[in-house]
Automatic annotation (TrEMBL):
It is a multi-pass membrane protein. Belongs to the ammonia transporter channel (TC 1.A.11.2) family. Pfam families: Ammonium_transp. Keywords: Ammonia transport, Membrane, Transmembrane, Transmembrane helix, Transport. The chain crosses the membrane at residues 41-64, 76-103, 123-147, 159-182, 194-215, 227-245, 251-278, 290-309, 315-331, 343-362, 382-406. Residues 39-434 form the Ammonium transporter AmtB-like domain. Its main location: membrane. It comes from Mucilaginibacter lappiensis. GO terms for cellular component: plasma membrane. This is Ammonium transporter. It comes from the Bacteria.
């Protein structure tokens, strides 16, 4: 039965395409579509998509040579699986009619119904709803891909597919709904997350920690990066795509998008230079790997704050996040936690630092849409406390929810490869391919 299950899934999808051809038009009066906004969001959607191949290079260059293809494929496969899920019911779970502010109604946009014509999203009234859905899809794709660095070199590919589907449904979609849907509980609470500090990076970071703990250590823990040049290429693609990730979250070609672009690139630069300077301060050589990791940590940390802070404060966010993540990486190496590519110290901790610093540096003059208040730096405490409470709640939900999903996946299909398969390498044992 297991052998034929994938074919049954494809058959069901094929049948759905005939039963629900998605020809329903939803005309909402006379929307004020803006061609400039549409052009920018089309570009942003493409930019965010390229981040996933960028992540594949970033992670693929860090693992041992015998696991490069497997590691890179774990990112690429998210592009195909999550896209199909999103088109059928995923977008509805994240942005459909709200069930108690926690999750969307899966039937609202089932098979993308009602998304043609003049339909728009409340927060993005100048672009078509279908474009908004395709843009948000790219966030849904990269989030589970981020987790893969934690269990790299020891997970069965078939089991990974099951886990990423469960994670997308039960972790990512609820968090996206709670944070970005107007009726979401975190949105109503006043949480500020411009482009994914909670929804993307914290959820992936805590899931990564849960995965590293659940799958335990590799049998061969010695780490020899296959291609540092891949890491550098991946960093460039991630930084390039992050402009769509953050500046695109303004949902238009406007001044807020410019602010988000500026704060993103300055935070990344500050994170990269701080990481290598901090290493040099402790007697280490400035490395290409350290520069790349620091730059990505800066991007992670600025993500929730990109459209709420000024450029000087983005520099502070990049510097602080790089130091904190560097210290957590150092701490992690002294524990038994085998987070292969330090996803939790970089993405999880970077996302948490960014969330808290949003509560410190957010300025209502930057973004009129910030109705929660100014940050701690300006003498107000309310926003900081809101961010802190959200951080704790999202952390608990993401970590323990991911542990439960890992256990369920393991019961369906064993998560770990055998010791022999691990020695041979996942490229050969899981895919029959090699560099």
């Amino acid at each position: 039965m297991k052998r034929y299950f994938p074919f049954l899934v494809i058959l069901v999808i094929l049948v759905l395409t005939f039963l629900f051809p998605s020809v329903e038009f939803k005309n909402s009066g006379n929307p004020h579509f803006n061609t400039g906004d549409i052009a920018w969001m089309l570009m942003s959607t493409a930019l965010v998509l390229i981040m996933t191949p960028g992540l594949a290079f970033f992670y693929g260059g860090m693992v041992n040579k015998k696991n490069v293809i497997s590691t890179m494929l774990q990112s690429i496969v998210c592009m195909v699986i999550i896209t199909v899920m999103w088109g059928i019911f995923g977008f509805s779970l994240a942005f459909g009619d709200s069930f108690y502010g926690i999750i969307g109604n899966p039937s609202t946009y089932f098979m993308m119904k009602g998304m043609l014509g003049n339909a728009t999203w409340k927060a993005a009234p100048t672009i078509p709803l279908l474009l908004f859905a395709m843009y948000q899809l790219k966030f849904a794709i990269i989030t589970p891909a981020l987790i893969t660095g934690a269990f790299a070199e020891r997970i069965r590919f078939n089991s990974y597919i099951i886990f990423l589907c469960l994670f997308s449904i039960f972790i990512f979609s609820p968090l996206a709904h709670c944070t970005w849907h107007p009726d979401g509980i975190l949105a109503k609470f006043g949480v500020l997350d411009f482009a994914g500090g909670t929804v993307v990076h914290m959820s992936a970071g805590w899931a990564a920690l849960a995965s590293a703990i659940y799958l335990k250590r590799r049998n061969e823990a010695n780490h020899s990066p296959a291609r540092i040049t891949y890491v550098m290429i991946g960093t460039g693609l991630l930084w390039f795509g992050w402009f769509g990730f953050n500046a695109g979250s303004a949902f238009g070609a406007n001044a807020l998008a410019v602010t988000a672009l500026a704060t993103s690139t300055t935070a990344s630069a500050a994170g990269g230079i701080t990481w290598i300077f901090f290493d040099m301060l402790r007697g280490r050589k400035p490395s290409a790997m350290g520069t790349c990791i620091g730059a990505v940590v800066g991007l992670v940390a600025i993500t929730p704050a990109a459209g709420f802070v000024t450029v000087p404060h983005s520099l502070a966010i990049g510097i602080i996040s790089a130091v904190v993540s560097n210290l957590v990486v150092e701490w992690r190496t002294r524990t038994s936690i085998d987070d292969t590519l330090d996803v939790f110290p970089c993405h999880g901790v970077g996302g948490m630092v960014g969330m808290l610093l949003t509560g410190v540096f957010a300025n209502q003059h930057v973004n009129a849409g910030n109705t929660t208040g100014n940050g701690l730096f300006f003498g107000e405490t309310h926003l900081f406390m809101v961010q802190l409470v959200a951080l704790v709640c999202v952390s608990i939900f993401s970590f323990f929810g991911s542990l439960l999903l890992l256990k369920i996946t393991d019961m369906i299909s064993p998560l770990r490869v055998s010791a022999e398969e691990e020695v041979v390498g996942l490229d050969i044992s899981q895919h029959g391919e090699k560099l």
